[in-house]
Design a protein that fits this description.
The protein has 262 residues and is of the alpha/beta class. The chain has 11 helices and 9 strands. α8 packs across α11. The longest helix is centred in the C-terminal third of the chain and has 18 residues. It is elongated and about 65 Å long.
């Protein structure tokens, strides 16, 4: 099967190793009829294997017009959305039904894809994605690790993360300058965090925006310069030292302080 080159500004690199493509698709572990949305199918390297699985009810979303034309010609049975995934209203295609997500995610928008997954976390129980190796490591990192960051905390709050395997740059056309990795996100049992979730997200982002500083310094925009909260030893820590549950507790303390000051 031939394939067309991606436009450079999309940040796409097409996988040419069919064994790895099959391995990525198998990582979905589909055991019953399941709606699946493939993001950025390009020229169908993953698509061909997804379509071979009778349990996969496949829809694909692709923004590149050349790739759309190629897919329509070679996979006429494919339900295809010619659009930018980040702008697609998933309810239009899936209603409020659950669907799994898979893709060789363009490097330049992979973080945005995961933020969209979070927005629809109650609809997306499983994600299998190939991303830049550093991004995969960051998402899977545990607290105390120097790569642990915003995506780690926000995704681990609602998903179990598995770093599945590393992929060499040589199996792509054109080869990227970095290695890739495949990760799997499985929705956990958490429905509500036990704190104001909008504030939780703000606290996490604000803390990691100055990740080398202690929380009493990085969180001043939220807490104020002279809060009694700073007497708590928790504020002596840096953000990478806090696991998800501690960030939840921190959010509740900050919310209480805000309510007292209002």
């Amino acid at each position: 099967m031939g394939y067309v080159k991606a436009k450079k500004n999309l940040g796409q690199h097409f996988l040419k190793d069919m064994q790895i493509a099959q391995r990525i698709v198998d990582s979905l572990q589909v055991t019953s009829p399941t709606p699946v949305l493939e993001v950025g199918p390009g020229t169908g390297v993953l698509t061909q294997f997804l379509l071979q699985n009778p349990l996969v009810e496949l829809t694909a979303v692709e923004v590149d017009s050349e790739s759309v034309a190629f897919l329509e010609e070679h996979y006429p049975q494919l339900k295809l959305i010619g659009a930018d995934f980040l702008k697609v209203d998933v309810h239009k295609y899936f209603g409020h039904d659950a669907f799994n997500l898979i893709g060789n995610f363009p490097y330049n928008i992979s973080s945005q894809i995961f933020f969209k997954v979070l927005e629809h976390r109650d609809q997306i129980p499983l994600v299998v994605g190939m991303v830049q190796k550093e991004v995969a490591e960051r998402i899977a990192a545990q607290s105390g690790n120097k790569t642990y960051g915003i995506l780690s905390v926000l995704l681990q709050a609602f998903y179990h993360i598995e770093y599945l395997f590393t992929v060499s740059e040589q199996v792509f056309d054109p080869p990227p300058k970095v290695k890739s990795a495949v990760i799997r996100l499985s929705r956990n049992e958490v429905c509500r965090l036990g704190c104001d979730e909008k504030l939780f997200k703000t606290v996490v982002k604000t803390a990691f925006n100055q990740r080398r500083k202690m929380l009493r310094n990085s969180l001043k925009p939220l807490v104020g310069p002279e809060s009694p909260l700073y007497a708590d030893p928790l504020f002596d820590k840096r953000p990478e030292q806090l696991d998800v549950q501690t960030f939840i507790e921190l959010t509740n303390r900050i919310e209480s302080a805000m309510n007292m000051n209002s």
